[in-house]
Amino acid sequence: MFIYKPTLLPYPITDTMAVSFEAGTWVWCPDEEDLFLPGQVQVTFKRGEPGQAKFADGEEKNITAKESAELLVCDAQSLESIENMVQLNDLNNASILHNLRLRFQQDVIYTSVGAILVSVNPFKLLPIYTPEWLDKYKGGSRGQPPHCYGIADDAYRQMTDKGDNHAVIIAGESGAGKTEAMKLVLQYIAEVSGKRETDGPSLEEQILKANPVMEAFGNAKTTRNNNSSRFGKWTAVKFDASQTIIGGKIINYLLEKSRVVNQSENERNYHIFYQLFAGAEKSKHETDPKKNLKKLFDLGEAQDYLYTNPGGRLEGSKGEGTTVAGINDEREFDDLVGAMRVIGMTPDEVENVLRVVAAILNLGNVSYMPDPAAEGEDKVKISNMEALEKVCSLLQIPTDSLVRCLTSRGIGAHSVIQVSYKLDEATGSRDALAKTIYGNLFDYLIGKINKSLSANTDEASVKSVIGVLDIFGFESFEKNSFEQLCINYCNEKLQFHFNDHIFKLEQEQYKAEGVSVDAITFVDNQAALDLLEKKSVGIISMIDEEIKTPKGDDFKMLAKMNKAYGERGKEHMNYAKPKPRAKDSDKSFIFKHYAGPVCYDVTGFMEKSKDTLHDDIVGVM
Which residues are catalytic? Predict the structure, then answer.
C-alpha cells in the first residue's frame, strides 16, 4: 500500500498529439500559474500555427505557434472529477494535475491511482476524520471514497486474510501532510484491531501517545510547514494470530541535530523548547518547588537563549515571534507530559528529560573571549561562567572538568598535553556537545517508547506486522545545506524503491490475469543515486575523503566535485555548476533530483558531516 505524492510523468502520452485542432474540441493550454488548463478551441487551426481557446470561466487564451507545436488534445472525460485516475482515458501530466485541481477545489483531497493514494494538503481541518467516517471503512474500503482510512483498512484486511506482513509508505514533499497521514493510519489500525485486556494504558493508546513525544522532540516549524518532521521513522505494529496488537517498535532515522544550535530565518528550534517555556510560565505561581518549572530550572524566555534566538532576531521581552499559528505550546506541553506518563515514564524521569532540555538552552549561552593571561598564544576562556555553572548544575557534572573540555583538548595517550581551542574551535565544540546531548536524549525517548510497546510482548506469538514509514519530504529552500542533501538522498532512495516495486507489481498483476503485455520500461533515478553514493567517486564518499585530508575544507571539496562532474566533457546528467552571476555561485553546486534541481551551499558541509565529540568531553559526560 502506498500513500504517495507522485512525480510528474517524464513525457507526454503521444496518443494526445494531433495534426490539427477542430473548433469546439478541448486542448490542454499551457498556463504560467497552473501549468495546464483545459481550453475549448474557437477556430480550427493546425499544429504549429497560432490559435485561440476559451477557458471554462470565459477567459480567452491566445496560443502561440510554439505552444501549438507541443499542444495536447484534452479528452472530454478529463473535464470531470474522477476518483480513481487509472480510469482516465488519457493519463498524462495535464489530466493528472487537472483532476487533482478539480477535486481540491471541492475539498476532496484524496484521489486513487490503483493501489496508490494521492493526498493534497488542504491546510485546514476537514470533517472527514470523525468516528462516523472511520466506521465507514470498517466493513472494507470497496465502494468507499478514497481515504487514508481505506489504505489502512486494505493493509489490515490483507494481513488478516493472508497472514502476511504489510507496509504503508508515506512520501511527499515537505509540508505535504505526511505526519498527519501517518497518525491517521495508525489511529485506524488501532481502532479496528483486536483488543487485549490490560490494567494500565492499552497498547493501542501507547502507540498513539508515542506521537506527541516524538513530535515535541523531533518536529519544528520550517518555512514550508509549521509541524515539520525533522527525522524519519518506521513504526512497526505487531499482531498475534487473532489480529490483536501485542507489541510495537519504532526505528528513527537521521534526526536533524544541527537545528538545535541554529535555525534559518522564520523557523523555530524543536517544539520542546517552546513548550518548556510555556509550561514554565504556566507553573510560575506554583508553591510546590517540584511543580514550579520556572524556578526549578531557572528558566528565562525564548529571546534569552542563543539556541532559540539566533542572531537576536526575536522581538519584545516575552518571546514574541516564537508562537506559531495553529500550535498552542502550553496545551502541547500538557499533552506531552501526559503522553510521557502513558508510555511508562515516572515523574522523576519526566523531570530529568526537561532538565536536560534546560541544560542545552544554557549551554548555547556559554560564550568565549581571548584569554588575556595567554602571552603570545591564541587561547580562549569562557566569558560568562554563570551560564556554564547552570549547565553543570542541571546536568550534575563538575564545573572545572567541563570548563577544561570546552576550552581545550587533550593530545597524547600516556603523557597528555592540553592544547587550547581557538575561538571558532571552542564554539564548534560547544555546539557539538549540545547536538550530541540532544541526539542522545531523542534516542533515549525512542528507547522508552519501545520499552513500553514491548513490555508484555511474547515475540513467539507475533504472526504478522504492519509497518508505517514516514520520512522527511523532499526539500528545496532558498538556501540548502548538508541537511537537505541527506533528506533528498533519502527521497531519491525511496523514489527508486517505489518505481521498482510498483512496476514489478503491475507486471505480476498482468501475468496473474493472463494479460500479455510487453515488459514495462520506465525512467529510473539510478544515475542520481550513483552520483550520491557510489563507492570512492560519489559525493558522499568525496565528503568523507575530504574530512580525512589534512587541511581539507568545504571549498576544496567543491573544487574536486566540479572537476569530476562539472567540467566540459565530464558533465554528469545530475550535476551542474551555478551560473557565475548567481548568488553564492562560488560555494554552491546544483544537483538535479528526480523532483527537480536543488542548489546546495557547501559552507559547513565538513563540520556537519563530522558531528563528533572529542574524547575529553565524552569522558566528562
Answer: 174-175, 179, 225, 228-229, 473, 475
